[in-house]
């Protein structure tokens, strides 16, 4: 895996992944930034969310759970002094589907956190990471109405 980060100006940077995708990062105005992109630490937190969501959806798909939507909300606390590492991270899953089995959802989250999500395991070496979830029942599809003419 490779990545490249190119300085643009001020505190703005263009990060490019080895797979050819790019994202702009920037610092806050009080540090010379123009606020045109995410902060690098925000990107790290978003990466954790994407990594664990990917795992959970894959595990639930293999378990034949009818997931129609999934959101991951992350909140993090950082140390007050340098290096301002994450000290606590909470990961909240909102999983929507028809008749989802809460035990399977919980198991998928645990497997991601403890075995598959590289970002979670790496960040967990420094920060206390907690998880919870809620299941939302998907709206029933509208019945088709046949009209006769």
Topology summary:
Blueprint: E1 3-9, E2 12-17, E3 22-25, H1 40-62, E4 67-78, E5 86-97, H2 102-116, H3 118-124, E6 128-137
Parallel strand pairs: 5-6
Antiparallel strand pairs: 1-2, 2-3, 4-5
Helix pairs in contact: 1-2, 1-3
Pfam family, one: OsmC
Organism: Thiocapsa imhoffii
InterPro entries: KH_dom-like_a/b (IPR015946), OsmC/Ohr_fam (IPR003718), OsmC/Ohrsf (IPR036102)
Structure write-up:
By secondary structure, the protein is of the alpha+beta class. It has two domains: 1-38, Single Sheet (N-terminal domain of TfIIb), CATH 2.20.25; 39-137, K homology (KH) domain (GMP Synthetase, Chain A, domain 3), CATH 3.30.300.20. 30% of the residues lie in helices and 34% in strands. The protein has three helices and six strands, in the order βββαββααβ. The strands form two sheets. A three-stranded antiparallel β-sheet has the order 1-2-3, with no helix packed on it. It has a three-stranded mixed β-sheet with strand order 4-5-6, covered by helices on one side. A hairpin with a 2-residue loop joins β1 and β2. The longest helix has 23 residues, at 40-62. The chain starts with a strand and ends in a 12-residue tail after the last strand. The model has no long low-confidence stretch (mean pLDDT 94).
